[in-house]
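Input sequence (770 aa), recorded before submission:
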Amino acid sequence: MSEHFKTVGRPEKKVDGLALVRGKPVYTPDYDAPDALVVKLLRSPHAHAQIKSIDTGQAEAIHDVVGVFTFKDIDRIPFTRAGQGYPEPSPYDTYLLDSKVRYVGDVVAVVAAKSEKAAREAVKNIKVEYEILDPVFDMREASNEGAPVIHDEEDCSGVFDKSRNIAAHFVMDIGDVEKTLESCDFVLRKTYHVDTQLHAALEPHNALTYFDSVGRLIVVSSTQVPFHCRRILSRILKKPIADIRVIKPRIGGGFGGKQSIIVEPYAALVTIKTGMPARIVCGREEVSMGTNIRHEMSFDVAVGATKDGKIRAISLQGISNTGAYGEHCLTTFMVAGSKTLPLYNKVDAVHFGGDIVYTNLPPAGAYRGYGAPQGLFPLDCAIDELAHEMKMDPLKLKEMNSIREGETSPIFEIMGEGREGVPQIMRSCKLQECIDLGKKAIDWDSKRGKKTKNGTKVRGVGCALAMQGSGIPKIDMGAATIKMNEDGSFNLLVGATDLGTGSDTILGQIAAEVLTVPLDKIVVYSSDTDLTPFDVGAYASSTTYVSGNAVRLAAEKVKEKVLDLAAEYLERDRSELTLESGVIRGKDGSSVSLSELCTMHMYTFNQQQISESASYVGEESPPPFAASFAEVEVDTDTGKITLINYVSYADCGLALNPIQAMGQLEGASMQGIGWALYEDIIYAKNGRMLTNDFFTYKVPSRMDYGKLTCGLVDSYEPTGPFGAKSIGEIGIDTPIPAIANAIFDATGIRLRHAPFKSERVLFEILSMEV
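Predicted structure, token format:
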């Protein structure tokens, strides 16, 4: 389809590419604020404790220390840090500063000083007396009778059951699963567990705050959700929204970790208390242990099928670890079902449910995939296991039971994110094409089940299928404003947040395509709550689909406007005019360029600013699809797993910028591979995170895997801007199950606990030998 377009579907250079490679000042720390105070946080060394007393006298006496603030200095206002739709489905269980700490790393006090040295010294000199409380670290024990209650405060709200540490609960049933399983020829019941993961973005969380000349609070932040940030700050600080401006410069990686409002309130507090600019920059240890991690989840899975290969029933009963606070707790858990179960839509009965529980570990939050990878691991691997019991090719079993174009699933309507969903029919689904391409690239038929050996090393292959979404239907809204300049260029103002994904470029391409001008004629400005229209922000794979449709609508309105004005100027009937390559032409040969038209309307003829705005809320969330394949080599002497080849093909509709889309698929795949094999968070007995830096927490480098092959199938989504769907998240869903299935194919060992550490593999190998 891309051959029909001039700008979309093309590998256009990123609009900010030159600035980035030249090292121009584009990130939040590059913003200068003379005399900005350095903000540092004192964090709790205990996982669960009541603060009995705080003595800040010695800290305040240090030279260059301007202030030290504790829970005694601010109003107690419960809120959620989750930057998601309003009203938020997350509980209001968080306080800017509290008299109780709930995990190692919880904030106890805020220091403001004129120098880094003074701030650090002050943090060391705050004297805190704690009453140590019993902690709970295991999510399976959190709701047991007699377990310590983590949120016993009366003023938090939206918690499902505080007395049992259950932050949220959800259950969904279609048909009678147990009765249906009884009538199946093959039934498999297993438990799968996936551990947490760090976002590991290169840019740490940071923010700069100051008052402008008229006393408004300006917040410059590396946030994914500037408008949610403004709204939440308004609540915490008791300031009108009109008095707060949030500016989002370039972001050095977010992956969901900057979808929560974490550091901005502390800098803002200092500015309000002192009247001075304030800057906060987290150290790597703080980013790891004091922001957000991924939700640890465990699922009891049951799958039943007839002997001819029809999957008739699926059950996923789970538990999720939200850590000390409940931001994103319900929604991530629901996505574990809503973005996985509809993939197998031929079933007669489905169950999904479970609890999201508090523990005294760092709070979990949004992370690329947002629960879908945790749900796909047990679902895909259980079907894989079932296929082996049936002596059937697992790819064939998945293939014959998966959703297809023109089909639907009742789950779409029942399960949304924190609320009911919407009914959907698959208008575009090229999953079969993804399967066929990936199967060929990995050489599936000749390698599966062969267990090729080379000394102590043995090879195997595995597969996984996935679907995701494109925004949250009937909830996520994006808007765009386009104004025209007298040289025929356009300013595109969008609230959408570019995380480094290239969304500014994509949105510029959409506008350029509609207005028939080159991309360099579109000047993109994004994410400033004063100057750009509203947008929910970058999450739920929404930007291309939701914000892109808003840009398309705004551009079409501008196009209609210039055609109407040109008809008046040229004295021609509107139906006779067309816009092409920046020139409006009549059938009789008359013409006027966009530059000429705009100049006249600004200075001499029917003077006006040519500009239009548009908003878009998705009525549905068209899923992208993916088929992924892994080839691994397992050393049976050591348990070491080497990823030889990883193949992933995706249907993301029309790739508006193929190079950027491939980058998203490759990057997400690598994050999933890291999670499956290398990334492992380890805690001390007291709940302190031990793997809180890049020396102890291992993310994969190019040296850690073999071949990576990613590709996009030719597809077109009729509801998307120029046929586009999302691509940002789906690549992270499949590596864990694909690699787990490949390990089984190689060794006969079924690993049901990720990550797949070599010692786990070796233990299983030794157990088999015994």
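Checked by second reader. The longest helix spans residues 543-570.
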